Amino acid sequence: MKYEMVYFDLDGTLLDFAKAERESIGAVLEEFGIPLSDDQIQTYVEINKKWWRLFSEGKASKDRIIVARFEEFLSWLGHPEISPLDVSQRYLEKLSNCAYFLPGAEEFLTKMKTLNVKMAALTNGVQSVQERRAKLLRLERFFEFMITSELAGKPKPDPAMFLLAARVSGVPLRRSVYVGDDPVVDYLAAKNAGTDFVLLDLDSVHFNFDGRRVSSYEELFNLLICESISS
Known about the structure:
- By secondary structure, the chain is α/β, with parallel strands linked by helices.
- The chain is 52% helix and 12% strand.
- It contains ten helices and six strands.
């Protein structure tokens, strides 16, 4: 195999974060007496994306964004009387117990593991949430380890997670590859770390991405394994 180590993003790459997010926000706001429509949930999704972009850009801390997103959303809903901190804490608890693989992801990882491919996860997600979800899905079956931005001290696209991962794995980054679903943050993180990158575009929306792109786990497996064997 061309690469000695394969690193993966989690949410949107292997795990169905969209499903977990919608399920969690709907259930939690229901607990606070606010049933949400699909359009309202979508508004939260967009607000959440905005705050995570600020986190990736180093403009807001993780402690800030996990509450600020609910400050903004509750204000938009017209419920300033509800504590954003209380909603945030309950949401993280609920999200920690919502763990789903994207269709085909578990089978793909099983095939990779059968070939003794060394794999690990590098994620910007909240560490306590990711650790609980990893436990529920038994990701230790596949991964050597998982590194979060909290553990590394900085979020992607800073290369801190990659540098720490290289020290933990003992594999130089030039002999590693990172697989992610974000053509900006994930790509820049890999580029900044000096490691190869593959965009997993499961929804086939990033046709203009100037780099290696696959739209299925089968394509990803063929790129990582079959092309390496034939080269």
